[in-house]
Amino acid sequence: MRAVVVLLGLALAAFAANFRLYLKDGSYHVVREYKVLEDRVRYYSVERGDWEEIPADLVDLKRTETEFKQRRDTLAQEAKLLAEEEKVDRERAREIARVPQEPGVYLVAAGELIPLKQAESKVHGNKGRSVLKVLTPIPIVSGKATVEIDGARSLSKVTLDRPEFYIRLSVDESFGIVRLKPEKNTRVVEKVTIVPVTREIIEEPELVEVFRQQVDEGLYKIWPTKPLAPGEYAVVEYTEGKLNIQVWDFAYDPKAKQ
Fold it and tell me: Which domain holds residue 30?
């Protein structure tokens, strides 16, 4: 991008150096500069590489000056836009570089990135609780179940009602923020229904509406569109209908100490 800006700057200089001196009959000379001297115009001809003169009443000075200004202003605007794009690209590259390469979730807090610890998800069904393995769902019988994580409260606290996170995916999957439901010593991530016969898995997470900004391949920034209510939440990565949800829990507590 920087090379493009340099080339455009050279092009701007070239246009400033060489432009058209229009005559009233519609023809023109390509010139480097000109001077109006009483009844004549003296100009440097790019074609012949020398100074020449022409009667002033044959020259269309208004058209010459108008076109020169328009072309100069257009190139200056394009150079400005490209410079702004280059600045955005540099900032984006710095943003990408600061996020660790390891898949996971990183909380943005006071300008720093704090990795969230991934919670161990468990399926609570008719046969008790079993650890949920990523990409290798455990067999569960038809009926109702819940996906849970241990503990009534998260150790990871945020004090902003619209916290920002980076999530780096290991594979192309869905992701978002869910609200967790505390129950005794666990928190429910989602309700699950296993349909008899077809074994279809229907998942019902309480998703929070979020903005998603792709920063790089497999890297996204995510934050709530509206302020969160105090409580338990998690950033999740999942494939719908596969019961392989991954959970990074946090609590929004505006009174928590950072």
Answer: 2-98
Q: Are residues 113 and 241 in the same domain?
A: yes
- Strand, helix or coil for residue 257: coil
Could you tell me the strand order of the sheet in which 207-208 lies?
Answer: 157-158, 246-252, 231-238, 174-179, 207-208
Q: How many domains does the chain have?
A: 2
Looking at the fold, whether 197 and 230 belong to one and the same domain comes out as: yes
CA atoms of 124 and 190, how far apart (whole Å) = 11
The fraction of the chain above a pLDDT of 70, given in percent, is 86
The verdict on 133 and 215 lying in the same domain is yes
pLDDT at 125: 75
Residues 138 and 108 in one domain: yes
Buried b (16+ CB within 10 A) or exposed e, 50-89: eeeeeeeeebbeebbeeebeeeeeebeeebeebbeeeeee
- Express each pLDDT in 27-59 by its tens digit: 999 998 899 998 999 999 999 999 999 999 999
Q: Could you tell me which of 236, 225, 233 has the C-alpha nearest to residue 252? A: 233
Residue 163 φ/ψ, nearest 5 degrees? -65, 150
53 domain residue, yes or no? yes
| Whole-model pTM over 0.70 | no
The answer to whether residues 203 and 241 touch, using CB atoms and an 8 Å cutoff, is: yes
CA-CA distance, 177 to 225, in Å (whole number)? 11
